[in-house]
């Protein structure tokens, strides 16, 4: 345990003798601003779901126009569409 030294003056209204109050002022701004966290992103960094939804619908309509469902082709088609959509969204 470490001991701390403060500049002190005797307490005038102290019921117990020998109790001293610190005369060093406490910076209340430090205490007020301590532990403040932003739990939400700034507006410019928010996920824009409307834009993404429009992008996905447009890409799927263009890519799947005129296609007929084929079991053998559907697995590869869905993987390719996923890669293409991720590239469009990230890029």
Automatic annotation (TrEMBL):
Protein name: Uncharacterized protein
Highest taxon, organism lineage: Eukaryota
Composition-biased stretches (Polar residues): 1-16
Renumbered residue ranges of the record's region Disordered: 1-22
């Amino acid at each position: 345990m470490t001991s701390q030294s403060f500049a002190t003056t005797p307490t005038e209204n102290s019921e117990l003798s020998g109790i001293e109050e610190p005369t060093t002022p406490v910076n209340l701004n430090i205490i007020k601003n301590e532990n403040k966290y932003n739990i939400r992103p700034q507006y410019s960094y928010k996920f824009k779901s409307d834009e993404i939804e429009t992008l996905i619908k447009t890409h799927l309509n263009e890519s799947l126009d005129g296609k007929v469902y084929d079991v053998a082709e559907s697995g590869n088609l869905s993987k390719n569409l996923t890669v293409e959509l991720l590239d469009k969204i990230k890029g």
